[in-house]
Amino acid sequence: MRTFGNLLAFSPELWLLLGAIGILVASRFTTARTTTVMAVATLVLALAALATQFKQTIVILDGAFLLDGFAVVLDVVVLGAATLSLLASRADILPGDADDAAAPAFYLLATLGALLAISAAEMISLFVSLELLAINLSILTALVRRGAGSIAVSLGYTLGGAAASGLLLYGLALLFGLSGQTQLNAVGTALARVGPNQAAIFLMLSLLIIGLGFWLGLLPLRWWVRGFEVGVALRALILIYSVGVVASFAVFGRIVVTSFSGTAIAYAPVLAMVAAVTMTAGTLLSITQNSLRRMVVYSAIGQAGFGLAALTDARHVGMPALVVYLVALALTSIAAYAAVIAYARSIHTDSLRDLAGIVAPMPALALALSLALLSMAGVPPLAGFLGKLLILQATVNGGYAWLAVIGIVNIVIATLGYARVLKLAFIDPPVYEVVPVRLDPGIRAAVLLASVGVVFMGVLLSPLYRAATYAGTALLHGR
Measured on CA atoms in the order 421, 329, 402, 279, is the torsion positive or negative? Predict the structure, then answer.
């Protein structure tokens, strides 16, 4: 049904909006810890509201938004990731840090933008939703800053995001000019009749990749913001690299499947080349770092390359592989960043050499950090390996076996590179005596839940893959 009444399908988004408004009002009278609890409760209510919508596809506002199986599955991932990010956020606050009670409201608004972007099936609604996500992530980088230097970084991040939004808008404008349509499904039908070798086609595709590449974390776009990996607070990074990246990949996946996959446009070779460069550069930059924080950030860039590789076979196994990978990526990113937050909170440094012998005073943290890094590398049978395995299968199925070989080489390099971290944590003698710090219950819950997910995702792979197949099929059939 295409009626105004279908706006009731926005009940999870309405909960997030009401929760954000309530927190902004309450922030004048209460503490940041209380507003964080309010935000977590709001996310749980949004998840409960979403649980009532596992039905047929719902068309909202005459096709501006589409609540299909693809949107519902990824909405669950985003809401779960946002909840774990908020649970971990309190542990990243040290004496003297900015601790604004209104900050959790912007977590909710960023999550609201992510949900809307995932459901957007029309250019204008898609762009506005992404802007809602981007603006609130930029606000968070400024609100949860640490030190004067982080102000310059947050400004650079905001300007980089504005530039990326401008390029994305130009790409969408070219897409409209070539097709005469704003609905993504109609765009795909129109582009099937357009000559694929026009210069405007290549320019449009380049602008879309660059515009979304900033939010996907592709190199050199994320790298352009000097000091991003150390200037932005970890409690903002954990949301950017979980909710932000998952939503951006969902948007790009919907665009590729609905607008390009049924045409003669040679988008797959372009994506394959960008994926190869990104995964390789991210991996090499990651293993050469002497800072644990930088290592995790650059590793996340490498993960984006693998996600992009799935779209080379978007019409077949690529989309289910991408959905499974995004679940693994969200769990692994949260486990890694939450472990880094706990590590920095305990030792007040992020230098790798200070990680030596950490297994003695903090065995649980050492284990969680090791699991996260091994999952990022793609070591079996952890979540990261399962997601990457499906993506490698998709690249071979799509005719890009050379990309699968590059992916395997990157997995091997990352595994060998991260082995030194395990050696430091479990074998090397400690640099100095570490007195364990009692961590906030939220960070302990986030680390535990994400680590359990990383380990036991293989056990749940069958139902997860069924859900991913359902999501991919809904997207392909909706085309």
Answer: negative
